[in-house]
Amino acid sequence: MRDNMTAPATEKSSEGRNLGLLIAAQSLGGASPPIIISLGGLVGQQLSTNPSAATLPVSLYQLTLALCTLPAAWLMHRMGRRFTYMIGALMGAVSGAVAAQGIAQSDFVLFCIGTAFSGFYAACVQSYRFAAADAVMGDSAVQARAISRIMIGGLIAGIIGPQIVIWTRDALPGTPFAGSFYGQAALALLALPILACLRLPRTQAKVVAGEARPLAEIVKTPRFIVAAAVGVVSYGLMAFLMTAAPMAMVGCGHTVGEAALGIQWHVLSMFAPSFVTGKLINRFGNRTITSVGLVMIGAAGVMALLGLDLFHFWGALVLLGVGWNFGFIGATSLVTECYRPAERAKVQALNDFLVFGTVAIASFGSGQLLHTVGWNGINVGMLPLVAIVLVLLGLQSRKLRQQEQRAI
């Protein structure tokens, strides 16, 4: 009897320990994207002779992130999450050092290689939320709370990343922004001992036993289509606007420091709601909260169209961040409803590939669109996409309610 009572307590203690370590790792690993995104376009403008190629470093980062989701998932399956996460952190350290050297040598190609290397680390960091969901025992409500808690680490990252930019951008005389990428490398190295302490449960045979549907069958289900569409639009539009915003702000006469602070407020807004997002999902349902997030993303576009003052830029970035939080955490929760235990790894990997592949495409186009249609044109173009996904989500919610009523 005593052993039976001790086992659940030990499992809960292990779950809490792993969640705490994942939050800490998220705080450090999540600080890299704000550094790359807030500076990548600005450094690209300095090093590239083609204005439309200014966002190429950020786009390559997003592309590598998308391409690495599948091999990272394969490596996690073969070698375990902890080993893969540590390899990712090492890649993050190397990427920061290479990018800094690219700036020091005024080598645009080398700088692009450095930012691209960060993609594997980012793919690992993005999977922390699924690691949290897999590590806890319980229903979808418990998993939603675990996902939300992990995303709180992004709140700390939202402070660390932009502050690294502000403190270190002129740390090395004659090579502006190189110090920030050395800072990125240092943060990745600091994450290594934290990741080494993870003791995530290995997938048990009895858990994955059972029939697994072909992936082609899963992706045709309405649940997966809507969940993936919400994730793609929520993350894609957020990354698209966040990539273009620093260059638009500087182009409108605002300083680099003001642009970095705008990104900081944006990243804080992305993760601060995580304290309550899980509870809101449990109370109102993941589809309702996801819909609220999409509406806020649309409101960010409207705010950006109202003017070009700091208030408009920062206000749009804040709305965009909160909308992303509700939309993306909600979408992640929806994805966990789409698969059986035996299908978990491949569905998670495919979802992230679709999301971050879209983000990469959006990032590639942001610099060119900013150069051709301008900041206002970008914000006008994103509104129909939000509307389409809201309609899909609303139709699915209505269908599920009808099914529940018939069951009663």
TrEMBL record:
Where would I find the Major facilitator superfamily (MFS) profile domain in this sequence? 224-408
Print the keywords alphabetically.
Membrane, Transmembrane, Transmembrane helix
Q: Which SUPFAM superfamilies match?
A: MFS general substrate transporter
Can you provide one Gene Ontology molecular function annotated for this UniProt record?
Answer: transmembrane transporter activity
Listed transmembrane segments = 21-44, 56-76, 83-102, 108-125, 146-169, 181-200, 221-243, 263-281, 288-307, 313-335, 347-367, 373-395
The answer to whether the entry has keyword Ligase is no
Keyword match Transmembrane: yes
- PANTHER family for the chain: MAJOR FACILITATOR SUPERFAMILY PROTEIN, MFS PERMEASE
What protein does this entry describe? Answer: MFS transporter
Upper taxonomic lineage: Bacteria, Pseudomonadati, Pseudomonadota, Betaproteobacteria, Burkholderiales
